[in-house]
Amino acid sequence: MSMQRRQNVSNGTNTLARVGLMALAVFLVTSPAARSADLPAGAAASKSKTKPTASTGIQKTAGTAPHRAANPAARTPARGATKKGHAVQPSSSSQEVALLKQQLASQQALLAAQQQQISKLMISMEEQKRLLERSIQTFQAAAPATGSSTPATLQLPSLGQVASLQPIVPPGPMLDTTLANAVPASVSQSVPPGQVAQPGEPQSYVQRVDQLSKAVENLSVGIAGFHFSGDFRVRSDNIWRSADADGAAEQNLRGRYRARFNIDRNLGDQISVHFQLGSGNFDNPLTDDTDFGGSATRGPIFLSEAWMNYHPNSTVNLQAGKMYDVFQDGTRFLWDEDVRFDGAQESVGTSPGDNPLGITRIDFRAGQYVLTNPNIQVLPSLKQCTPAPPQTITTLPTTITTPSTLPAACAYLAAGYSPGENVRASDMFDQGFFIKGRIKPGWSQYFYSNYVAFRNPNQIALASTSSGLPVLVNNILGVTLAATLPGTGNATTIPGGGIYTASHFDVAHLAYRLTYDGGKFRGESFPVFLDVQGSRNVGTSFLRNAWMATVNAGDIQKAGDVRFQYAYGEKDANSMISQYTDDQFGTNTGVNVRTHAIRFDVGLTRYLQWQNIFYIQNPISGNDPARHFYVPVPLGVNTQYRAQSSLFVSF
């Protein structure tokens, strides 16, 4: 009897132990409070918000978990358990406990993996913080004691290539506020050992790392509000032409380089300044290239650009200094891409908003540029500018008298001036309008028209002669050039003379571009545009027109991008000033040329391009003495070819 009682007690004890063990395990797995108690501080709150799924990594909220895990109290008493504590099947209890242990192990493994990922992110954030702190210390040491904030300015859209005018690092107190906002407090504190960060935070950490990276990059390129940029190009430039009865052979296979460094600074929110230092030659304003050679001598550096810009609002933009023409568009048509003018320019525009024509911007622009500064009030008399007759020696001994040197200003007589006349400066005035708009999604266009008027243009021709160079160029530079300025090509009244055949240069110019930027090539953006330009010199009556059409496909923004371009154009000998138009579209002559230009570029990296251009050039007109018409490269000269291959780096 006692033996049977002890056996029953033992069986009951075993049954109660099994039931208790099962209940404890179920409670540990299914109860959010129990799981939170087992986790380190800070993890319990996150577990109630998100649950990463181990197999897919997709985040689930607690509300989407299975019903059995979310609400254990509502489960039915299955799996062998009875309401009154009847015995539970041993096999069912073992399977339940094994399943629960497996789930616990899976949860622990998942938490460990998340902890490892978060630890890596925290290490990365600490490295970013240390780098940022060093940059702040360097900046504060170099910054002035007082400063003013320089918010981004509203900059008028420009047709030309200009350096960025946006400030990079706001000076003074604004810097501390900006950086403090960029560095969250949670990032600056490391996670204590053993603590599990919230599973929902890795994505926000990545975003903060990106923000800090951008802030550090801005600090690296800007010091006290100055922004630095530039580019470097090394080029193979080859020209060849066979000889014939009308022209000599041409062959020049050379290497060239160009270096440019830009400095920009915003002074408050309405004034900005820009400077550019660049390579080049004293005697060629049409290129910044320097040829390989010179027996290892050093190349010079010039102040290529210098201007001040005043932009009180998005409507008015005023600029003065040495700069691009106000309608420079980089198409190699009216202006060479490297020519800069001294003077001032203004722009007044507006963005009209929604309208039936789709116009997004209208600008009225004007530029006034000084080309020469003779500073001659009255030219010498004809007698003063007449050389003394040569002496004839018939008997000895005699006195040999050296004739006096003619006044330098007498050179202006070769440009059509009269003795005793006042010589005024040569100037250029450019004015017109620019309209930009969108046709439909992916399609845009712009149209502009300008009128370029030259005053005293013969001084430009005179500056390219040996007699005019000393009075028009050398005294301005303060140095003596060994050769005349290149870029000639217009018709003159005598071969190589200082008087243009065209009595005036008043050039009316139209330009239109249609762009489709919704194209794709190998899954990447592939914009396409068609550009058409035409001009007429209304200051003369013959050989006065020019036109050019360009088709472009692609753009270089990163590695693997490509660009294809074809252009064809014709420029008559009296159509525009040769000394200022492109010197590559018409090699050895800026006008009196018809040219095919084929271009292919490849992006090697984000900052490096491989550029290739091939030109086929032929003259249009020959000499005509009856019209006092003489050109440097006349009709009949053989076809000239030019091939350029360049590596271009920008930073």
Structural features, described:
- With 651 residues, this protein is of the alpha+beta class.
- It is 22% helix and 30% strand.
- It has 9 helices and 22 strands.
- The protein has helices at residues 2-30, 32-38, 43-47, 67-70, 90-142, 173-182, 202-221, 458-463, 469-477; strands at residues 50-52, 59-61, 222-223, 226-241, 250-267, 271-278, 290-291, 302-310, 316-323, 341-350, 359-370, 427-440, 443-455, 506-516, 520-521, 524-525, 528-537, 545-554, 562-571, 593-603, 608-619, 640-650.
- It has a 16-stranded antiparallel β-barrel. It has a two-stranded antiparallel ribbon with strand order 1-2.
- Helix 5 packs parallel to helix 7 (202-221).
- The longest helix is centred in the first third of the chain and has 53 residues, at 90-142.
- It is elongated.
- It starts with a helix and ends with a strand.
- The relative contact order is 0.08.
- Mean pLDDT is 79; it is low at 1-10, 29-90 and 144-200.
Please give the order of strands in the largest beta sheet: 4-5-6-8-9-10-11-12-13-14-17-18-19-20-21-22
Number of helices: 9
Helix content: 10-25%
Strand content: 25-35%
Unreliable residue runs:
1-10, 29-90, 144-200
| Rg of Cα set | 40 Å
Helical/strand content category: alpha+beta
Shape: elongated
| Biggest sheet details | 16 strands, antiparallel, barrel
Gap from first CA to last CA: 99 Å
- Average pLDDT, to the nearest integer? 79
Number of strands: 22
Question: Which descriptors would you attach to this protein?
Answer:
two-stranded antiparallel ribbon; 651 residues; 16-stranded antiparallel β-barrel; disordered N terminus
